[in-house]
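Subgroup meeting minutes
Present: P.N., E.W., G.H.
Scribe: E.W.

1. P.N. recapped why we're keeping a running log of single-chain structure predictions: easier to compare across weeks, and new members can see raw inputs and outputs side by side.
2. G.H. added today's entry (271 aa).
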Amino acid sequence: MQKFKAYRTFQENGVVSSRFVEMGLDELDPGDVVVKTKYSTINYKDALSYNGTGKIMRKYPTVAGIDMAGTVDTSADPRFKHGDKVIVHAYDVGVAHDGGYSEYVRVPADWVVPIPEGLTPFDVMTIGTAGFTAALSVIEMERNGLSPERGPVIVAGATGGVGSIAVECLSARGYAVTALTGKAHAEEFLRTLGAKEVLQRNTLQMGTRPLEKATWAGAVDPVGGEILAWLTRTMAYGTRSASSGCTACVTTATLSIRPCPALAKGQSSKL
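Output recorded in log:
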């Protein structure tokens, strides 16, 4: 196989930085399946990893990118054959194993997921890891007894990837959704997604008691920190919550990844 392009993160003389490089297949981390990348996304973890912020990566050098979608090039596992449309994300992808910002990805077969019929690689990366997380949050809460008649559901970080899709999914399933956001200009947008109520984070009265007024039947929280603490104090008895992030715990993150201007946050881009 000829050389291909990848966006790789290095630690050199104690400094973490990322750049485009040319690689060969034998330089990628080992795996049973080689996938030709069509699309990837920039997630919050990716925005933290490219210069070492947040200490996301556990080894250097590593090809960045915690998700990707494409077609199988070669496979030593009988579950996959050349041309199959697949997704690779989660596990150690882009963290401790070469990830999705590469024209080719090589991973263990158990990390590979077939793309459902009717969806394209572009579709699944438009939804992305954020959408997958939002869907899992809703599924797991319902599996544990959440239903629309139980009462209102709140979504924190509602304009983000996880939050916005969670608002839309919950609303479509009949829930009365309250969207919590720090963006004053986003109310109209959140209501178009189905939010019945929009709370502004900077006007929120969180209180100081161990338990505040029992309000929410369910909560989706990709934020963490002070917001998660407040949510746990305001959940109604016997209700459900799904916490998937800790963005509030990181104060030095930057989302300006200059080497990849085409990969806008929340969008899919062709490599």
